[in-house]
Amino acid sequence: FFYLTALLLFINYYAGPVGRQVPEKRIKKIFFYILLFLSAFLASGSKETAVTLPAIAILYDFCFLSRGTVKGIIEKRLIPHLIFIVSSLFIFYNFFFRIPQAGSAGFSVKIITPLQYLFTQFNVFWTYVRLLIVPVNQNLDYDYPFANSILELPTCFSLAGIILILSVTAFILIRANKRQAGKEYLNSMVFAFSVLWFFITLFPTSNFIPLSDVIFEHRLYLPSIGFCIILSLCIILLTDGKISFFIPITVIIIGLYGFASFERNNIWQSDIKLWQDVVEKSPKKYRAHKYLGL
C-alpha cells in the first residue's frame, strides 16, 4: 500500500497538472517532500521489497519524464529520488542487524547455499511467469527442487530465456530512445518499463541471498503489476484500440482469471482443505503434514 502510495505521489506530482504548474509554490513542494518521505519510510518498514522503490522511481522518471535521458533526473528531480534512497536505508538495517538472527533469510540459512539459491531462482522465475499466464496447480508450500549447477539443462535454458528477455527489452529501449516521440516510442517505453518492473520488484527474493523457502506465490503480488501492464498493452496493440474488440477480449480475460480465483478461494475456505491440497502437491514436505495434523 505505502509502496504504491509513494510511487503514485511522485507520478502525480511530476506527471500530473501539479507538476506542470510554473512557477511552483515552495510550500507545496515542501509538503510534497514530507508526504513522499513518510510514504516511502512506511513502505520500508512494511516490506523488504520496498528497497526497490528508488529503482522503480528512477526507471519511471527515465522512461516517461526525462524521456530516456539521465540529465532530467539529476537536474529536475534529484531530491525526491534521494528521499526514496534515504528511506530505503531502514531496510538495509533490518537485513544486516535483525533478519539474519531469525535464520530464515540471509547467509545464515543452512539448507541451501547462495549459488544453489541463485541457480534455483532461474527456474523459479519461469514458474512465476507460468502462474501469471496460467494460474493453475497453485501451492501454498512448494517442494521445489534445488538447482545444483548452472549446467543442469532446465537451469541452463531458464537462464538463457531470462537473458533473451532482458536483451530484447534493452534493444527496444535503445531503439525507442532514438525516436524520442510518437506512439511507437510510448509503447516501447511502456513495454520496457513493465518488463523491468517485473525483474526489479522480484529481485529482493530472487537473487543469491538465500531464503528458507525458494518460492512463494505471494512474492508475485508487486511484480504482477508489470505483467498486468504488459497484458494490457498487448490487448491494446492487438485490437488497435478499437472498443468493439477491446471490451470483449478484456471481459473474457477478466472472466477467466476471475473463475480461476474463485476456484482457488474454495481451497482457502478452511485450513483442512488448504493443507490437504498442499499435502497432495507436496507429499514429502514435513510442514504440510504438520499443519494438516494441527
Structure, briefly:
68% of the residues lie in helices and 0% in strands.
Description:
This protein has 294 residues and is mainly α. Helices cover 68% and strands 0% of the residues. It contains twelve helices and no strands. Helix 1 packs antiparallel against helix 2 (26-46) and helix 11 (271-281) packs antiparallel against helix 12 (286-293). The model is unreliable at 18-22 (pLDDT under 50).
Helix and strand sequence:
HHHHHHHHHHHH
Mean pLDDT: 87
The biggest beta sheet reads:
none
Determine the fraction of residues in helical runs and give it as a percent range: 55-70%
Outline, from the CA principal axes? globular
Q: What structural class results from the helix and strand content?
A: mainly alpha
- CA radius of gyration: 21 Å
What fraction of the residues are assigned to beta strands by DSSP? under 5%
Q: First CA to last CA: what distance?
A: 33 Å
Instruction: Please report the total strand number as a whole number.
Output: 0
Number of helices: 12
Low-confidence stretches: 18-22
